[in-house]
Design a protein that fits this description.
This protein is mainly β. The protein has one helix and 14 strands. Helix content is 5%, strand content 55%.
């Protein structure tokens, strides 16, 4: 019995000596890429001489594929990327801050119903679209007046009715609290300092800080970063840690975005608002260490 107890105690000490056996006090940092999906959204555009809503706008992301820009310091913010850094305040829980750089592009090849009114001054190119809209179908891929009741307006060469995207980007700056559970032993991997497998889940909240590119009724775009709203999110993922300090992590992250103060043109009177749900698929690489 003494021999058995002694061996058990030695095994416990060996496990405790493993770097990966305890997380409390460790820091981590990661960098990765994402693909995004969005639900349809009603988007309201309003200004001094117009107020209309595009119903059920369809949008997609703008992937760059496998590209050197993901690791090129001069161009790392061009693709859809994810940065995160955090701290383990216990063996199983961490708190982190991150930047989810998504891209949101209105699908140009769509017919969307528009409700509201446009009454621009006659000397503006966008006055081509002046009139009242009552669930009026508008072909977003075309220039000029569409069937369904667009009335009056300038009969010259019209600008695009609308091109709308957050491509620099749909920046979700957020804080997350996450749980981490080592499942290595379940899979027969007792030497957890060489390979460790963890499940992770988390909840997050933060601000939306997009740079919105909008071509709206021929007006000059705003083209600057602006705090536009807030987001809420939840995630689940799997983490593979190698040789104590390096990891590869895959995540599914979904949430809700509400932006009620989107800048669209150079005029402070011109705004847009929308809300929608999103889903990210994320692959990231990172490091975990003690200072």
């Amino acid at each position: 019995m003494c021999f058995a107890v002694n061996m058990f105690a030695q095994d416990e000490i060996a496990i405790q000596d493993k770097y990966t056996a305890h997380n409390k006090g460790k820091f981590f940092v990661s960098w990765g890429g994402n693909r995004d999906s969005y639900t349809k959204s009603d988007v309201n555009f309003r200004g001094k001489d117009y107020n209309f809503t595009v119903a059920d706008m369809k949008a997609h992301d703008k992937p760059k594929g496998y590209h050197i820009d993901y690791v090129n310091p001069a161009n790392m913010t061009i693709p859809q990327t994810n940065f995160r850094m955090g701290y383990f305040f216990s063996d199983h829980y961490s708190v982190s801050i991150g930047w989810d750089h998504m891209k949101y592009v209105m699908t140009q090849n769509q017919i969307a119903n528009v409700t509201g009114n446009i009454n621009l001054p006659a000397d503006q190119a966008g006055s081509y679209y002046n009139g009242d809209y009552n669930n009026t179908p508008v072909d977003m891929s075309q220039h000029g007046a569409q069937e369904g009741g667009i009335a009056g307006g300038n009969q010259g060469n019209p600008p695009a009715f609308l091109m709308y995207e957050h491509t620099d980007g749909l920046n979700y700056i957020n804080t997350e609290v996450s749980r981490h559970d080592d499942i290595s032993n379940w899979l027969g991997l007792p030497n957890i300092d060489k390979v460790q497998i963890n499940l992770t889940e988390g909840l997050g909240a933060g601000l939306l800080y997009p740079k919105t590119n909008t071509t709206l009724l021929g007006k000059e775009r705003h083209d600057d970063f602006h705090i536009s709203g807030y987001g809420l999110s939840a995630k689940a993922g799997i983490n593979f840690t190698f040789f104590k300090y390096f990891y590869l992590q895959g995540e599914l992250k979904g949430g809700y975005i509400n932006m009620q103060d989107i800048r669209t043109t150079q005029s402070n009177n011109d705004k847009a608002s929308q809300d929608f749900f999103f889903l990210q698929r994320i692959i990231a690489v990172g490091g975990i260490f003690r200072i």
